[in-house]
Design brief:
single chain, four-stranded antiparallel beta sheet, five-stranded mixed beta sheet, alpha+beta
Amino acid sequence: MDCRVELQDSATEGPWPLPEGWCWTKLKSVAAVNPSTDFGTFDPTTEITFVPMAAVTEETGKIDISNRRAVQSVSKGYVRFMNGDVIFAKITPCMENGKVAPVIGMPEGAAAGSTEFHVFRPVAVDQRYLWYWLVARTFRGQAKRNMSGSAGQLRVPVEWLREVDFPLPPLAEQRRIVARIDALFAEIAEGEAALAAARDGLDTFRRALLKAAVTGELTEEWRAENPASSTGHDLVAGIIKHRNCAGERRVRGRLSPEATTIDASELPRLPETWCWASFRELFDISTGSTPSRSDPTLWNGAVPWVSSGEVAFCRIKSTRETISTAGLGNAATRLNPVGTVLLAMIGEGKTRGQCAILDVPAANNQNAAAIRVSATPIPPEYVYHVLEERYFRSRRESQGGNQPALNAGKVGEMPIPVPPLNEIDEILRRVSEALSVCTDTLAVLDTEAADAARLKQSILKAAFEGRLVPQDSTEEPAAALLERLATTAPAPARAKRGRGARSHA
């Protein structure tokens, strides 16, 4: 195992003054950078911890050690490290996101992991003090400015890491600093946990609100005080009659205005004045297309064009891309009017099932269904909330995303609860008021979370400037500690005490 460090000929003058007993030095002087770790004592079939990049939690220093691999399968082509080290993601965006962690609790004492980690083995520095320095956003910002490589493959060079300035306190003071940071961060963590619980509460409230809105529970008392002069069935029948008269091309045959074709036997029971209908009975539904990327005349025109990634529970007032009139082709119906509700049909993660309302006329790609709500008396906001409630319910029922891909036919067969039109207006009024309160509360939570993040960075700044804990003049100065290490280092040198600072541009 190689634990050698390099000592420079003189103390480094750093970006700010340090207290007596501290000194500026190079990172390579306090920790071996990418040292070797011997796996020779392990039986090749022994399973040890393997740490992929995904196993390191951002900014928390936590490592998931549940992944196991045989030594013979990780003896080559992977980074090795051991308890007591610090691993540091060197590639973008993992480095910027704070995938940095102290290595502790490895059952076999050593582990292997992604080649996109740099490894630091502390020699003249406390492990957690070093970790706090490396994970601080100030240092990560500095590292980002010194990354090299191609776009999307930028990495922090090991040569830069070895030469970067490092504020070194006496070893005993390092441990006092770490203890104080740990205590303060624990208090902040309690507040952050409360904020997270409040955020979860808002999410639960929103889901419950939407469910109440589309089942009639939200307006139960209102209905009792406002007897219906018409019903949801009347609304559906009127829309179907209008569509039959208009002869819309996408209506599959003439529909009966007397009764919907949907089977409601397995659907939730609705209030007497409501009814179930299918999307295809009420709305014209179409999918879009993507003009050929090889023909520049089809792009960068005056027609907004929506990709499915932009359909993200929002109102669309502008688009990332535009197409020309020629890009629409001969089918002018591809240009959707204001008030059209778009539904993402394909996509990994959270994309599929999200919806948006067009506030500008726009075309869309083939991975989103365009539901032309504006051609009916039904407000697009109601359809939006129906789809939003369906999304949250589907995600919960499928435990995060095993839903099958949608297509225009499946969208058309989806059921929608239809209240009388005046009740729809009351539902939207109540939902809007409640969600406005949620939005205001969420903004407060976001502000408090940002304040907590800034407070942690302020604590780290004070720590590395020597302002977090008192100094003890009886402790071995940092420069003396480095001098002692010179007796075992391959290139011994002296490090002077430092108080002064030079200005850095």
